[in-house]
Amino acid sequence: MGSMDGKICMVTGATSGIGLYTALEIAKMGASVIIIGRDQAKCERVVKRIQNESGNNYVEYLLADLSSQAQIRAIAKDFYNHHNRLDVLVNNAGGFYLFRQLSADGIEMTFALNHLAYFLLTILLMEALRASPSARILNVSSGSHYNEHLDFNNLQLKRLYNPIQAYGRTKLANILFTYELSRQLAGTQITANALTPGMVATDIWKKVHRWLTPLIYPVIQRIALTPLEGAQTSIYLATSAEVEGITGKYYVNKHPIKSSPISYDENAAAHLWQASLKLVGLQSAHEL
């Protein structure tokens, strides 16, 4: 019997890197695992790999580009067609974009994928999370949120786009969202926590710069954590009995630490919540 037997877990961005190893290790513990990816062939390969390496056949995938709100809504609907409960949601998918580009919804891509996808998918799956006797929401952030702030007059960086700033601000948004979510879910059986995996040698580093990447990526591979090492905090928060009932925290190396001072600004979190509702076309978090 595995420690996660009977649990239903969803991991986004699970066809490579941290997400893949998070899904794999949770599957090894006996959970039913649903991975989210945007490439069907890759999803199929990863599902087979996880099944083979874990000995767990209860692994499936849902196909979506999470920068698209229509596709997020489609996988949420598909999920409800087959499941009525969700025990663990790991919002892990993310991207880094050198140049400003827009999503299918006309939203700056970094913000659309790294923040709004977390926000919308979580809200759409809230009914299933409420149906769990003890549900957990994990939002994968980054230490890059330190020294960043959100400019609500330029939330999508229409002026002076900087990819590092765009990424760092979305990682701050992940934490503001997590803390606001934990406040709104206070008194329920659902917890919400954020984490940083640390510096991990994933494919995101290959997008730094077309000239610098050949120089930077080999160094990153030598000094950074492996994806399996980087996944350890996600795995811990998803499965450990030690964090049962703990909510509204920011973790690194399986330990809660202080996030940036501005991430505790409740006014900024509330402002971001309302701006996010507007950008995904909802009046409230209950209008599903």
Q: What this model shows, in words?
A:
- The protein has 288 residues and is α/β, with parallel strands linked by helices.
- It has one domain (8-279): 3-Layer(aba) Sandwich (Rossmann fold).
- The chain has helices at residues 17-28, 40-54, 69-82, 109-124, 126-130, 163-184, 213-223, 227-230, 232-239, 266-279, and strands spanning 8-12, 32-37, 59-63, 88-91, 135-140, 190-195, 250-252, 255-257.
- It has an 8-stranded mixed sheet, sandwiched between helices.
- Strand 2 (32-37), helix 2 (40-54) and strand 3 form a beta-alpha-beta unit.
- Helix 1 runs parallel beside helix 2.
- The protein is globular.
For this entry, give a set of tags.
288 residues, alpha/beta, globular, 10 helices, 8-stranded mixed sheet, Rossmann fold, 8 strands
Please bin the fraction of helical residues: 40-55%
Which regions contain 5 or more consecutive residues with pLDDT less than 50?
219-223
Please give the CATH class.
Alpha Beta
Mean of residue pLDDT values: 91
Write out the strand line-up for the largest beta sheet, numbering strands in chain order.
Answer: 3-2-1-4-5-6-7-8
**Which architecture would the CATH scheme give at its second level?**
3-Layer(aba) Sandwich
CATH topology: Rossmann fold
User: What would the principal axes of the Cα set say about the shape?
Assistant: globular
- Measured by DSSP, the beta-strand proportion falls in 5-15%
Radius of gyration: 18 Å
Q: How many angstroms separate the termini?
A: 36 Å
